[in-house]
Amino acid sequence: MRxxxxxxxxxxxxxxxxxxxxxVATTNTDWADDGFHQHRTLxxxxxxxxxxxxxxxxxxxxxxxxxxxxxxxxxxxxxxxKQRNRYGVMHLENIPxxxxxxxxDFGSGSKPVIIALSRLDKxxxxxxxxxxxxxxxxPLKKQMRTYSAWVEVIVLFxxxxxxxxxxxxxxxxxxxxxxxxxxxxxxxxxLAALAGLTEAGFRRLFDEIYDMSPKQYLQQCxxxxxxxxxxxxxxxxxxxxxxxxxxxxxxxxxxxxxVEGIPPSEWRKMQQRKTDEFSI
Length: 280
Prior knowledge:
- The chain folds into two domains: 16-162, Jelly Rolls, CATH 2.60.120.280; 167-279, Orthogonal Bundle (Arc Repressor Mutant, subunit A).
- Helices cover 48% and strands 24% of the residues.
- The protein has helices at residues 97-104, 119-136, 143-161, 166-180, 188-195, 199-210, 214-232, 237-243, 249-260, 264-279; strands spanning 4-7, 10-13, 19-27, 31-32, 42-56, 59-64, 67-71, 77-93, 113-116.
- The chain is globular and about 65 Å long.
């Protein structure tokens, strides 16, 4: 009997283990599910490439790459794909309480949750997803713990990076542009034009979504990249400064010290000392 260990004459009840089924489906032509179907599992489907359609009850939604559908168990639904398209699909059963808490933050209930990722975040999620597929086909010492940890990472990634409305996705495209162009000056007027908004409208929506101004977001991205380069590379400080948009090393050092309280050279040494302590 599933979920029961029999020892001697008694029984010890155990929690059912997490069950995961996951795959990537790729087609080069239009296709459609024959009809509505439902699963006893919770389904997470991600359109990785192309266009598609998701339909449930009396509702129908056109999908673009980067959109994610979280489908509760027993909900009748169907999918379509248009031309060349790729879906990443994950079915989850006996989900641990900790992961269910994260999923409840989406407010799913008995209805599907439709969320969207920016292009960069969609690419990062696809990398995570493909690594997870590799894990599923590998021999593991702690199989259930590993599966649970990876599922939790993917769900948390979706929580951190997804947007629920289309205009928010427009703003995240501008945020992608900022992250990809740290080495050059990014003008608010250019970002607003990219999003199809006035400068005032762009600033307002950006603050709504990221809880900070575009300038603050740029500085945050610069700091994240600076710390990554300082701790993971042997690049010279002036090279790092140029890579994140500072023409002069002095300006970079002053900015870094103002934010972190110490110069970048000292911060790098501090990280190296921590690494040395762990390696002893």
